[in-house]
Here is the input.
Amino acid sequence: MAIYLSRLILDLRHPAVRRSMGDVHQLHRAILAAFPRAPAGAPAREHFGILYRAEAVERAPLLVRLLVQSTELPDWSRLPGGAFGPAPDERGNPAMRRVDEEYARITNDMRFIFRLRANPTKRLHTHRPGREDRLLGKRVALLREDEQLAWLVRKGAQHGFRLLNTALHPEIPAVQAATQATERGRRRLPEGGEAASLTFGATLFTGCLQVTDAESFRRALISGIGSGKAFGFGLLSLAAYQERIAGSDG
Here is the structure.
């Protein structure tokens, strides 16, 4: 199965880009517009294996980097003219490449530097003093870093990787969980119903990991990790773990 990774540099001065970045549902719709119509009854995001993440561009506050992974080659010319910023390198803007062959080469014990923007949550089962009963049985965002990291450890056990501690190496930080601004949006219900509010807690995980089950890990790379995948969460990005730092983890 072919898997494509697109990198788009978008210009926030364009009104359509600003609208998309301020509303998770608008961004979801803008990305789906680059793909053909899915078969009847098939959710488009799942059918095309779409995962994505929007992130700031260093030292360029008017630009945003959008990474989109998919099993279908997207047509980014469907985005409005003027939405793209300058190309950051010779690959152009947008830039696309296949990554399935890279995923196929992953084996047990390989190490990577990673980045994951996720929506870590837990379900409330018991009442606690001071907490509203209306939240019982619902999923709520994890806000404390220790809870967020514990969530990622559990996801690693499910998806074939473990986190590495590189705190002793000055160039690579230990695994970190940085709470980001809450993502919000409005989704209009079919047949003229009122729009529903969308709210997602966002955490950016960075650090190093080691593959413990390559097959399970590849499935996580393709399918994403955690909830909120339709709205910019769950895309696991990898970079090479240089040999010169191997062995510095605990």
